[in-house]
Give the backbone structure.
Amino acid sequence: MDESRVGGIRVPSDTVEIFELIKPGDYAEPLIHRSMRVTSGLCLDRSDEAHDEFLYVLEGSARFSFTDASGAYELREGSAVHIQAGRAWNLAVENSAWLLSFLVPAPGTPWADALAKQTGKVVDVAELGAQAAEAASSDRQFEVLFDASRGSRGATMFVGFIPTSGAPEHYHLYDEICVIVGGSGILKCRGIDQKLRKGSAFHVAPRLLHALENPNPEDLWVLGVFRPEGSAAAAFYPDGTPAPNNEE
């Protein structure tokens, strides 16, 4: 999915236009992904009692503030924000910005309660490139932006870096939404090849066989949010064999 396939929604007097790309559908306690186009000015205050939210700045810059004055941050491309359910916030933008939003059900419902992890200190903002890269399957790497060690009780947010390659089919045990944040490639799933570009989003249900192919000389960058919280390197081949990583 991408913005060209859905209509945007803007509330009068707000500066944010929202494109809901991955919808709840028929899932219980689902992950949701929205693309947010923000124009100049201060947006309306927003909060969500039912979801923890993760934001990622794909283009532009913005000043992010919690409305209770507990923190204000200057965001740029590659900045990520973790907002626990119930915290109110807003964005001030000078020109324009493109943000990605991921909603993860917060504790308070049965499945979210069962998946919730004990967490470390809550980190509000992470910057891409500030954390050490880790090994994934084959010659791929990833960088974790948020997980339980940084206060995320229900999900992991990471960026994966995929060099020129054609990966074999594999699956995960977690539920995941991915968005292309750099480069382009191909999603192979259910015998269908789908082209991916910046802003393209797709949902990978647990045990769904899929593969990402990068036919280009530059790396393909994939932003992923998955639950339950865990390791982004946890992948399996169709026969159930764990996929190796660079550390093995």
Observations:
- Residues 45 and 117 are 28 Å apart (CA to CA).
- The chain has one helix and 19 strands.
- The helical segments are 110-115.
